[in-house]
Structures are given as structure tokens and as C-alpha cells.
Amino acid sequence: LLGVLRSVAKARARVACVVLLAAAACVLYGWLWWWPGHRNRQCLWEVPDSLTLLTRPPVDCTICRDVSQVDHVKAITPQEFEDRYAYTARPVVIQDAMLNWTAPTAFSFDYLKGIYEESLAAPDSVQDRCQFFPYSTDFRSLREVFQMDADRAAMRPGAKPWYIGWSNCDEKVARLLRAHYGRPYFLPSLSENKNVDWIFMGSSGFGAQMHVDNVRHPSWQAQLRGAKLWSLQPPPECLYECQAFSVVVQPGEIIVLDTNQWYHSTKIVSEDISITIGAEYD
User: Fold this and answer.
1) Which residues contact 244 (CB under 8 A, 6 or more apart)?
2) What keywords are annotated for this sequence in UniProt (predicted)?
3) How far apart are CA 60 and CA 75, in angstroms?
4) pLDDT digits (tens, 9 = 90+) for 194-240
5) Domain assignments of the chain as residue spans, ordered by start
6) Dist CA 227 CA 204 (whole Å)
7) Which CATH number fits domain 49-280: 3.40.50.300, 3.10.20.90, 3.10.129.10, 2.60.120.650?
8) CB neighbours of 179 closer than 8 A, spacing ≥ 6?
9) Contact criterion met (CB below 8 Å) for 199 and 277
């Protein structure tokens, strides 16, 4: 009889434990969903960069062994681009890829603020679920960026400098953006331009610190306004075989780079605001 009672007690303890765990899960879910400070966050716990780097697969150093500079090309055919650059991780700047685009003249801080106004007005905006990179600024969201004062937005003397980036998740905004630019002419015919647009914008002297991305595909970035210095370094395992170098991407040029393999930093070197837009391709 004593053994039966012990078995019943253990069973009841297990049931109580399961109930408590389920209740705790419900409370945690409710907290994450209803608490405003967490609903708009991309992740509750961020994975440290050091841990991400430790889990990266080793890189084949043939991607950089014979690369000592960034090529500048014009009038390159899709086949030539595919053979030499598209999937080899060899960086390149295309100098004539925006000849028919209206984005270089249409895009500005005020223009972007205007097309996002409706999207960001909603408390549960789809854009809040997209990625936002504050870099070294005090902004916590794209909404806060477009709420900055006019002097700072216009980069007037004495105003605090800034540099941010974000991915666009709003389909309506995507249509407005893409009315001013098209698929880069040099991409391989069977390549698909990914649906997510990436935009980076900021003032002179600012940019992104040295890092490597965690993305699936190479990408292109179009320098619509301003000029940006890109500093490239090979992966750590290739430091004794490959060179580090830099390139300034001028307005009207597109840089193509596998940011998942090349470590890179950027710095705006023009007095004008820098605005770039880009996407991954497969």
C-alpha cells in the first residue's frame, strides 16, 4: 500500500510540474505579445556576434587569393558578369548601372519619410517586424529616425551626425521605391533579385564598423546619393593569403559584394547625405 501511495504522489507531482510549466509558458507568451517594449523587437535575446563568428563555416581562400583591388567596369554583359563576378565573391563596381533610374534624383530624407508615413503611423506596422540597424546612433526604430528634428535630418552645422540601415517589409512602399529603379541590367538572366530592399542612409563621417553579414546570397548596393568608402578585409583564416583594400563608391555606381564572406566597413566621405539601396540575388 505504501508503494502505491508513493507512485500516486510522484504522478501528482509530475502533473503539477507540467501544469506549472504550461502556465509559465502562457504568462511568458502573453508578456511578449502584449508588452509594448517587446512586441516590436526582432528578437528577445540577441545572439552575440562572437558566438555567430565561432559557428561560421571555414572559407575557401581562393575567393580572395588573387584579388588586390576592386574592379571598375562598364557595359558588362550578364554572361560576363556571371562568369567573372556573380558567384566568385570577387567584388566589383559597375559604373553605368543607373543610367535610366530616377532614384538618384527622387530619393531624399524627406521623400523616404513621406512614403513611410502611412506605414509607420500604425501601432502594429509591418515595418516594425523588419530589421533595423541603429549602428552608433540612439535611434531604436525607423519610426524614431523619421521623427528626428529638421536640423539633424538636414545635417546642419552643429547637429548630431547619424547613420542607420533597414530592410523594407511594406509591399506598398516597395512598389513606390521600385518605381524609381529597376533590376540591374548586369545580373545573370536566370538570377532572381530578392524581394527585400535594403536601405542605408546617413551623414558625412559616419558608417558601419567592420563586420561580416549572415546572409544567404551575394548582394548589390546602389550608391544613389553621396560617396561611401568601403574597406574590405578577407576572412581571418585567409589573412596570410589575401589582401585588405578599399574603394570609394561614387554616386551612380553599384558595388557588388559577397558580404557573407568579405569583412567590410563603410564610411560616408561626401558632404552630401549618403543614400544607398540594394538587394540580394541568387
Assistant:
1) 231, 232, 233, 234
2) Membrane, Transmembrane, Transmembrane helix
3) 30
4) 778 999 999 999 999 999 988 889 999 999 999 999 999 999 999 99
5) 1-46, 49-280
6) 9
7) 2.60.120.650
8) 102
9) yes
